[in-house]
Write a structure and sequence with these properties.
Two copies of one chain form a homodimer.
Chain A (H helix, E strand, L loop, with lengths): L1 E7 L7 H16 L2 E7 L5 H12 L5 H25 L4 E4 L1 H4 L1 E3 L8 E4 L1 H9 L3 E5 L2 E3 L5 E3 L4 H12 L4 E6 L20 E3 H9 L7 H10 L3 E5 L7 E4 L3 H6 L4 E17 L4 H11 L7 E3 L6 E8 L4 H15 L3 E14 L9 H11 L6 E5 L2 E7 L3 H11 L16
Parallel strand pairs in A: 1-2, 1-9, 2-6, 3-6, 9-11, 10-12
Antiparallel strand pairs in A: 4-5, 7-8, 11-12, 13-15, 13-16, 14-15, 16-18, 17-18
Helix pairs in contact in A: 1-3, 2-3, 6-8, 7-8, 10-11, 12-13
Chain lengths: 416, 416
């Protein structure tokens, strides 16, 4: 019997009617001859409501208590979905993250999953139960409740799929799959049938909010096929899997992504000596700030400029860290800017085709868009631009790489 | 250092402002030189909101999933209260029922506490922490989340006070303490300074909703002094403790209680043979229906009438049980009535004073109120009357036993 893991996001369980619809879909999957584990997020905006409640109490809630608070959102969803499936007459059981044995590191707000104990899950599946698991949450070894950060339910789903050696992890969302660009910006964007983990990872990291990057990493690590599909219809969505030959030849560029959550910090006149970068980025890492792009300019008179990007929420903390180490590393000055965006092209086929980056830069130049930073990898090229220019850049690039299609696009948009 | 356990009900933590007020009160208690454990209920009407949500899904939610759902209410409260205390600058930690080691039987919706593990609590107290515990919830040995039923937070508080051998368990409510009668009905009712566990137990069972009966039982069993007091002021409330000599002499009757949640089932023409009552009440017990009063009428022609009362919510189930065993016990007929109330007088001094019951019946007769059932114990006399007559009965009895006082009465009423 195949094991299918299904994940439904907050908008799929936003109210009683939607929960009942999810219940029918889950039962359908089981009746088709599968063992089914379902991961759900908190209902609609309920996580935001809880955050607002905390803000009424304090502007700096303790991360531990924030996890205690937010973990309730998913617990409400699993109970309600289990009730809905029970009402349809099928054996069902809801389990919280801690109950299911999702062991995380002892970090609050963005804990990483260390292990998933598949024993209880497998046993309950073998007893004929549909299992509903709270996404986004886990527990440390000593029973502290942790959360995995935004998008954590995707990670829960793939981690459980990996632990159970599931045949597929279906991520249900309010779009049909992964598109060549955000259809709200590029109306002619079309759905990709398949995409590699690496491409998806780049797209996910780059702001195409269909799948959380950590879930894709996990999927790649454990070889879990991830099927991104719509909760509103039964159309096949986009399958995220290892590269197969035919895929590589399909497209030079799979998609164009953009991310408005970009802030840049620049350090001027940094002495060109060993250990400077280490000191700076270690200090940032200690505050758990994820640094995205890092650019070190060519040396002039033994002094460098270093610029890097972080998500906007981390900007204040990052600036404080940089201020604190500025003296020690002997930097001449500091600047920052929160009004930026990153526009990227992603494609596994890029590596064997020269000139892709140049074509992107040319398009930007033709549009009169200034590029502030550039970063490349084997399968992507990213440019930091002014936030105001991002939309125009995406449209122009999508067009110049001939990604336009006529696939019907879900009107509810691209982001999940 | 004294250990003080404080319990704040849903109305005391109904919004951010109230939570902040509770935080200040808790900190005050710690700063006065005590170790403090705080038990909180779900915010305001949030439990009812969760129940409504479940009702949108199904009219018969599984009890297990209902517990999963409802346990979130208290988890929200503890996180927010911990944030508020942290903001005031004091070390604090919130813990769910399962985390604190509140072990319950494997029953959903009204589980009984089997044990409380004081180890973690004592350790965190000794580390200087204020501890906030979710009331109303626990876990079975195999980690299933359970709830203790309405009023369960009182029980949590007293159970934790017992496990920690606390000096006092303070139950904060929106009234000043325990009154001789419901001030909404009897404006001249006055606050009792002290009351015995047994009296409180009778009052609690009889519908004076200040303290949950199970919490009083636990308090009596472990000798935990329970201080019922107002969360709106610092006045001493009512101390519930073992009888002391002076108390017994104070009053013949301590209070008049009423309970509108009464339904009666009558069985006619039941053969007068051994085992009939056992069969009937065992069948009811198996469905976990609490039977309150039981009256068996004098035998006529080897046949009896049996009448008993249950809470209204249990009436349908109870009637079904009785229908099922009616044949087996050879009963002639069955009747039921959900439109009743119970009016009771309670007093430890009653036992040594004859004529108390007679005086109550006389008052009822003078008011023209028909008594449908009577039950007595050493410290109480209860009468079942028509629901419409209950208020008038309470007023007349309170007056005839000369319980009227001039103590200021909180305008927010008697019930918590």
């Amino acid at each position: 019997m195949a094991i299918v893991v299904q994940k439904f996001g907050g908008s799929s369980v936003a109210n009683a009617e939607r929960i009942k619809r999810v219940a029918r879909r889950v039962v359908e999957t089981q009746q088709a001859g599968n063992q089914v584990v379902v991961i759900v997020s908190a209902m609609g905006d309920s996580t935001d409501d809880l955050i607002d409640l905390a803000k009424e109490i304090t502007d700096k809630p303790k991360a531990r208590e924030m996890d205690m608070l937010l973990a309730t959102g998913e617990q409400v969803s699993i109970a309600l979905l289990a009730m809905a499936i029970d009402k349809l007459g099928y054996p069902v059981l809801s389990l919280t993250g801690p109950q299911v044995g999702i062991l995380t590191e002892h970090v609050h707000g963005k804990a990483k999953i260390l292990d998933v104990n598949p024993e209880r899950l497998q046993q309950e599946l073998d007893n004929g139960n549909i299992i509903i698991v709270a996404g986004f949450q886990g527990a440390t070894e000593d029973g502290e409740i942790t959360t995995l950060g935004r998008g954590g339910s995707d990670t829960t789903a793939v981690a459980i799929a990996a632990a159970l050696k599931a045949d597929v992890c279906e991520i249900f969302t309010d779009v049909d799959g992964v598109y060549t660009a955000d259809p709200r910006i590029v109306p002619k964007a079309h759905k990709l049938q398949r995409i590699t983990y690496d491409e998806m990872l780049e797209l996910a990291s780059l702001g195409a909010q269909v799948l959380h990057p950590r879930s894709v990493e996990l999927g790649k690590e454990y070889g879990v096929p991830i099927h991104v599909r719509s909760s509103f219809n039964h159309n096949p969505g986009t399958l995220v899997q290892e590269a197969v030959d035919s895929m590589e030849k399909e497209l030079m560029v799979s998609g164009v992504a953009y991310d408005l959550n970009v802030a840049k910090i620049g350090l001027f006149d940094v002495p060109d000596k060993p250990g400077v970068a280490k000191m700076l980025f270690k200090a940032l890492a200690e505050k758990r700030i994820n640094v995205d792009m890092i650019i070190q300019s060519a040396m002039r008179n033994d002094r460098n400029d270093i610029a890097f990007t972080v998500v906007k929420d981390d900007l204040d903390t990052a600036v404080a860290v940089v201020e604190a180490v500025k003296e020690a590393i002997g930097a001449g000055g500091l600047s920052y800017d929160a009004n930026l965006a990153k526009v990227s092209i992603v494609g596994a086929g890029m590596v064997s085709r020269p000139g892709v980056a140049a074509m992107m830069f040319e398009t930007m130049a033709e549009e009169g868009i200034n590029i502030e930073m550039i970063a490349t990898s084997e399968i992507k090229v990213s440019c930091v631009v002014r936030a105001d220019d991002a939309k125009r850049a995406v449209q122009a690039i999508h067009k110049s790489f001939e990604l336009e299609g006529d696939a019907p696009v879900n009107s509810e948009g691209f982001a999940s």
